[in-house]
Write a structure and sequence with these properties.
103 residues; alpha/beta
Length: 103
C-alpha cells in the first residue's frame, strides 16, 4: 500500500506555532517569530537571529498554489518539522492584530 500526503486539520496552540515557525519562500526561509530572512530552510534547525528552534514549517504561497507534491517534497526535505498551512497562520495573525487594535 502506498503512502500519500493529506492535509489534516488539528487544533494547535497559535502561540507555540508562531514562535517556532519557519516560513519557506522560493529560495530561502524566514523566521515567523523575529522576521529574520534568508534562512537556509533545508538545514537550519534554529533561527540564526533569535535562536528559536523550528518545530513547524509552511510555504509562503497561497494554499491554492501549494500542491500536495510540493508539500511532500518539503516534508521529505525536513521530516523533523510539522507542516502547517500558511493561510491558516496568516488568518489567525491578522485576526489577532485586529483584536489588539480594537481593545
Amino acid at each position: 500500500m502506498a503512502n500519500y500526503y493529506f492535509r489534516v486539520g488539528r487544533e494547535m496552540d497559535y502561540d507555540d506555532v508562531s514562535k517556532h515557525l519557519l516560513i519557506v519562500g522560493e529560495l530561502s526561509g524566514d523566521c515567523f517569530s523575529c522576521r529574520e530572512v534568508g534562512i537556509n530552510y533545508s538545514r537550519e534547525k534554529y533561527c540564526p537571529q533569535c535562536k528559536t528552534d523550528f518545530k513547524y514549517i509552511s510555504y509562503r504561497k497561497s494554499s491554492g498554489a501549494v500542491t500536495t507534491g510540493a508539500i511532500a517534497k518539503l516534508c521529505a526535505k525536513r521530516p523533523d518539522l510539522v507542516y502547517v498551512e500558511y493561510g491558516d497562520v496568516k488568518e489567525i495573525a491578522d485576526h489577532m492584530k485586529v483584536k489588539k487594535i480594537f481593545k
